[in-house]
Structure prediction request, 339 residues.
Amino acid sequence: MAEQAIVDSLGRQLHDLRVSVTDRCNFRCVYCMPKEVFGRGYQFLAKKELLTFEEIERLVKIFAGLGVRKIRLTGGEPLVRSELENLIERIAAVDNIDDISLTTNAVLLSEKRAQSLRSAGLGRVNISLDALDDETFKAINDVGVPVKKVLDGIEAAASAGFDSVKVNMVVKRGMNEDSIVPMARYFHGTGQILRFIEFMDVGNTNAWHDNAVMTAQQIVDVINAELPIEPVEANYLGEVAKRWKYTDGGGEIGVISSVSEPFCGDCSRARLSAVGKLYTCLFAADGFDLMSLVRSESSDVEIEQRLRKLWARRRDRYSETRTVESVLRPKVEMSYIGG
Prediction:
């Protein structure tokens, strides 16, 4: 298959593919999978409804021919999908894929599991942690998991020798803004990059309101008042987080400002759901059904041609055009496409 990078109608190249491997999660975070929707009786997908590892591998090969170089595995919680190492090995063997990362809550990330993931070819790990005190954290994850379980997972990841271990904190006003400085102090000097994420209106089940958003600038101001920081140049065009470094040499943090300072203009990401739907925006209402093509007699060339046409007409810039009306319209849930 001829390799030729593709660009959308706004000149943005496809470079990153985020692959959800499951819709299941062992947390019920209030800003992602609230129990009111994803309660005890919620029907998750049967395994036969998910893309197989062979199907994901095939699609990754096709996407690599279109310019994708980075793969991020997400969920739900990706570590609840058994034998994930097998998928990582398959992706690591694909020509031109030079970065494989994983987003996880780290509860299942033991030292043994971290080592096996690393050996399979996983390069980087992003771990979600929204507070350091148990009361706040348990209220957020809503299943009673204590902070130590995640901190143990972070330590396991650090010991496994990944290229980087980043910690992601979603900040929601009225939920955990008091945890910003304690989190910054805890990870200061550890070599693990802490990234603060504005509360976003992904999906329709998390009761998003702009009053609950603590902006990137407000987050920076709170940290700077306690631990002075200064801006750092981006590592590459389209980097999601704005970088800041501590002036005392204690490392760096990142701040993701999808609401207050949108970065749609550099977005190079597509998202593949666990059922094989391709979303060209985190805030999309629906996706393009790739599973039906994969499970039909369509050839790789035919699938590639469909993807070229799909990306060529992409005009997504939701965060730049967000309105009261667009916030309320149906959107895919975070748990289906992993953020």
Observations:
- DSSP finds twelve helices and twelve strands in the chain.
- Residues 16-337 form a domain with the TIM Barrel fold (CATH 3.20.20.70).
- The first strand starts at residue 16 and ends at 20.
